[in-house]
């Protein structure tokens, strides 16, 4: 078998494969295994309505392998569906090349998932969700070429729970395929081969286990190595197997009740693996290595042990059966012992000295240890708690920064760099990604940060075992204590007020305009333009120190550490500009806007601290009249009502004044004269074509606005000569190539199961030229062959030819004809009923000519009549004494 990672795949000799599910600390996590079987010919088993499919024995064996205590984790294999692929799938291509076949299968199995819309329930189409997919194929696969070789399986390492990588391909070798499936599933759990980058296998002089890179007679494929146990434990503890934490749907499969070796004896197991003429070779111990007769009548083995339950015999056991590579007394099976948890270990040292670290404690399933198929312990294997939660002293280095700097003395690709934390997106929050200072690249320096490292800035959540875990505002792991709206841990929200408003004043272009002042101590600050514009949000202090977009210079969107908090400035191309910070701020800040065009409106909200002074008076006041909302046809001016401090008449937040006494704002009309005529343009119509150049149109009118509710349409001559265009080109991009499917052919053959075919072409969108198929999207190609089934073909029947000539030219003889059993295709068949066969021979009679006297004086005239073919028979049966026969066969009968 072979493991494949994101960069390479290493081939190996005959070995096994895998696919499965697992459990993590809180309890047993079940995964669901979907599978498909691709066959190159007939099935190696019969299928009755209630027959037990050999694949069921394989999956039962896989389930047992993952339930073995040597795995160190409770893993439950559940088959959610078994798909038999009897015809080509449009996007699935399986051949001898294991790598390409695996890639195709992984993409195909992702397309039949329904988890997003159906959860783990079975949808209406009956296709249940799976966590990993297993392909069993009868192709003799090979890792690097499209030709048969010794590869048995292939799977992405660590692919479990990744939709396009949780899959494997396995060569069908009969019941022994269970070991291949288990092996390849092990790879998806992050397992490497024993001895590859670890101390297991040959390096430790131990017996090869299930994850060995190839199988020999000494291999024990029924148990896992310590390295395999460490790999899967690390995988599950890191949270990478989270997709398995659900209850799979129930399926009404018929599962075997007997051991596979009882259902299929050694001879049958050989036929599964080497063909219908193979049988067991009575060679070596069958329980440890099954030997079979090859097509060339030689004894061969793939080093796979015979299935459990296979009949065996030893010097001491007259009749036994195989159990985990050993021949034991028939019908006996050692009793298993379920495992039990031992005591918790003492708490380990805290991972940090300040700022919130993590300590752990573990327990083992060893009181007692599970043995002989006993159940593994369920529940929490490792527990964690917070420690050293006090804030670090002022000026302390960032904890993630310290971890990055530890790699300054470690060469990276032959060079040394100064590393700083990378805080951009697109990376796992609990992996250590560091940026090379002075260079424009970052890399992952460690797969997991030290426990207790914050997952993200402005977040209390911390990383534990490479997984982000929730931390309450009290800095306790798993705590539900939260900050209130004032960012007071466990508070009631009464120590601050909420301020939210829309700033939509008309502004003069070309300068800075104040939007709002954010008081010291404010939290949950959010500033956002309503629409995309050419304006820019600006942040400064009361002392005119600019922090963002100041002095007519536009800053790159990023994080800004300002006023004791971090502001996140974002300016995406497809969304409005935003400015956000959690706070609290340690000074008063002023939000400005750099005006380049009309203000689309700016929405702001924040929560300043409640700090009322009862001795200070506040009162409502009217502002000056605003600018007229329109230059003509009637606009509106407004006098707003604001709350002012009585001592200095400064504007303060409205909550300081009495809401009940607030007067209404004032409005008045302005600029009531009609507007000058101007061109009015309607909305553009849809383009006449979606590609290759089209045209769109709009309505253009000369109008004059009389008032806010009245407009008058004028003659075009009343407006300026520069009339806007009525049409414009659109959709000028070239049409993409597309598939064109021609008509279906007739069903071939004309009766019974067959196929209909059609030609599928890749056509250019511009000129309808035929292009190579690689130019069209592969996933959208229409199928070019479908099954069809016309009326039942007529049964084979006897066909008789015309009768031949009579064997006698005179008198009685025999005549013959050909009789054949022919199918409806006129091909020979052996399925005609024998009792309906027409006669191929019958008696015949020819008219005799008048005989001429034969002179006995002329011996030269004594001859056989040349038209008679039976003279030797006349002699043989002693008919020469009869006148007629002696006359017709004169020469033959002469002397007799």
From TrEMBL:
Stretches the record annotates as Disordered: 1-48
Segments passing through the bilayer: none
Biased composition (Low complexity): 12-22
GO process terms (BP): extracellular matrix organization; integrin-mediated signaling pathway; proteolysis
Cofactor(s) needed for function: Zn(2+)
Pfam hit, one: ADAMTS_spacer1
Protein name: Disintegrin and metalloproteinase with thrombospondin motifs 6
Assigned GO CC terms: extracellular matrix
Residue ranges of domain PLAC in the record: 858-896
Keyword Signal: yes
Peptidase M12B domain boundaries: 62-248
Residues bound to Zn(2+): 183, 187, 193
Origin species: Collichthys lucidus (Big head croaker)
GO molecular function: metal ion binding; metalloendopeptidase activity
